[in-house]
Design a protein that fits this description.
- The chain has 228 residues and is an alpha+beta fold.
- The protein has two domains: 2-120, 2-Layer Sandwich (Beta-Lactamase); 133-226, Arc Repressor Mutant, subunit A, CATH 1.10.10.
- Helices cover 43% and strands 21% of the residues.
- Strands 2-1-5-4-3 form a five-stranded antiparallel sheet. Strands 6-7 form a two-stranded parallel ribbon.
- Strand 4 and strand 5 form a beta hairpin.
- Helix 7 packs across helix 9 (185-198) and helix 8 crosses helix 9 (185-198).
Amino acid sequence: MYNDAIQQAVNASLLDAMPQGIYIKDKDLVFRYGNHLAVEPSGLKADDYVGRSDWEMPWDKHAQSYIDYDNDTLAGHHYSKLSLSNGTDGEKIVIHDRKFVLSGLNGEQLGVIGTFKIIPFKYFEVFKVINGLTQDSYKICADLNNYLNSTKENYTLTKKESTCLFYTLHGKSAKEIARVMGISNKTVEFHIANIKIKWNCNTKQDLFVKAFELGCFNVLPLHILQEL
């Protein structure tokens, strides 16, 4: 009994530390758990949050849609949705919702576990690029320069240069990169021009070839993730 209580406390602490809202509904689609990020939008205390359905929440006008999504999830359909909304400060935000079947040890359905992450709109392009890559298709590098300097020559880049390079390699235009980074198109072009000089490239095509030779296509600088 004591060990069970300890395990529950540890599990709750771990879920509470996650950077996204996490909630659990039982088979009757009644909330049975929510970490602090999931409970916060309801304006309720954690104890009051548990035991309610979507019909009894402040978002009751959307309850039927949420319940339909839950039932689709229980029926085996994959659920992942991006929706545009406004934050409490009036700024545009993007909400990424995902739902999964919560299964017991014997495979029986226990309910639905859902997650959601609120993304500032200015970082939406960052999010789309990162989530368009699979775990197997890239490796996260704490410092791109450490990776580049493992080669025989010195290809050191600044953080802004490595950010511009990453998005350029993944098909983003200078205008799109400028919007994500909060800088001007000319500044993006300036950083790309600096990379060309450092890497002895005359054209954008040369830059892509050099990046391919260095293996940069599958390297994701950690600082890009940390900005989300």
